[in-house]
Design a protein that fits this description.
Helices cover about 55% and strands about 10% of the residues. The protein has a three-stranded antiparallel sheet with strand order 1-3-2. About 10% of the residues are buried.
Length: about 120
């Protein structure tokens, strides 16, 4: 990072740090997988039951909580249809779509780091 981004003589968690702000919005364990699955789907839209099947390991309660928070924070939008049983779809909002390039960059960076770590581990053995 460049000089001047970190506060001096101040607790960083008491400042308006953009990285910490972003992590607070989508840094929860399940939020990124939910966003990825919606983004990767056809028309960037998934029904609740599809998300429930795709996000392996998440409970229905946690999925609902994360979806509500992602909707509240304007990453996704919820559309409910008047059908029996009710059908609910989730799709990316503009804020969610603009996040994707940054996440793809982080993904590529992490992929490279994982390869380097694997290479280092193999050399140690």
């Amino acid at each position: 990072m460049t000089d001047g981004l970190l506060p001096e003589n101040q607790n960083i968690y008491e400042t308006r740090c953009p990285i910490l702000y972003a992590m607070d919005l989508f840094g929860h364990k399940w939020k990124l997988p939910i966003l990825w699955y919606i983004a990767a789907s056809e028309r960037q839209t998934l029904r609740y039951r599809e998300l429930e099947r795709k996000v392996v390991g998440i409970t229905a309660t946690m999925l609902t909580k994360c979806l509500r928070e992602l909707e509240r924070d304007r990453f996704i939008k919820r559309k409910q249809y008047s059908t029996i049983p009710p059908t609910v779809e989730y799709s990316l909002e503009e804020r969610g779509r603009t996040l994707l390039p940054a996440l793809e960059s982080v993904y590529r960076w992490a992929e490279e780091q994982m390869r380097e770590d694997q290479t280092m581990e193999e050399k140690r053995q």
